[in-house]
Design a protein that fits this description.
heterodimer, A: seven-stranded mixed beta sheet, 54% strand
Chain lengths: 124, 113
């Protein structure tokens, strides 16, 4: 049974970097049949996909245009986890952040397994 | 980007009655290679992440009650709760995973009348 456990600070100051971690159990971050995603949810923007990382002979990343210039998603194979870094945050980045597993497109589902969510507030 | 538009934004249904939620995509999410619609329906309750109900537009996830069903193809989709139960009070979302960025509808809040 795949489980995702998120951690990270709930309060970040404007212009600083938001950093979250998602520990994976029951699967490998290096699996070549899934992608590992970050999604956020806010009342003003709804559910919004931010980006993903995945391994297909080499590591690949894809990011949403809205955050592309200030986001990094990385995998740590030694800890079987993925991370999110979002730079230069503003109050607009206040949201609940989720990590999520997506099986290969041939399996359907979209985002199948979700972390528990982390509420991040950007405020001084 | 594919825009997903749900209707209505909210609805109140009596216990035991039918609830119908619509989702329209700005372009087709039917993949010609496998004739599958790349659309998932989620249920979200307060303080919880979304939970998969239906994928491939009409395939019920294991463990989901059979009062939940999905239909539609191309750009128009429907989630039906055939007999609303108290535990179905939640917000429901559609997601297209046909092309990046994967995008969600704005959500439909279902309440008891």
């Amino acid at each position: 049974q795949v489980q995702l456990q998120q951690s990270g600070p709930g309060l970040v100051k404007p212009s600083q970097t938001l950093s979250l971690t998602c520990v994976i159990s029951g699967d490998s971050v290096s699996s070549n049949s899934v992608t590992w995603n970050w999604i956020r949810q806010s009342p003003s923007r709804g559910l919004e996909w931010l980006g993903r990382t995945y391994y297909r002979s080499k590591w690949k990343n894809e990011y949403a245009a809205i955050v592309q210039s200030r986001i990094a998603i990385n995998a740590d194979t030694s800890k079987n986890q993925l991370s999110l870094q979002l730079n230069s945050v503003t109050p607009e980045d206040t949201a609940v952040y989720y990590c999520a597993r997506a099986p290969g497109k041939g399996e359907g589902y979209g985002f199948q397994i979700w972390g528990q969510g982390t509420m991040v507030t950007v405020s001084s | 980007d594919i825009v997903m538009t749900q209707s209505p934004d909210s609805l109140a249904v009596a216990l035991g009655e039918r609830a119908t939620i619509n989702c329209k995509s700005s372009q087709s999410v039917l993949h010609s290679s496998n004739n599958k619609n790349y659309l998932t329906w989620y249920q979200q309750k307060p303080g919880q992440p979304p939970k998969v109900l239906i994928y491939w537009a009409s395939t019920r996830e294991s463990g989901v009650p059979d009062r939940f069903s999905g239909s539609g193809s191309g750009t128009d989709f429907t989630l039906t709760i055939s007999s609303l139960q108290a535990e179905d009070v939640a917000v429901y979302y559609c997601l297209q995973y046909y092309s990046l960025p994967w995008t969600f509808g704005q959500g439909t809040k279902v309440e008891i009348k």
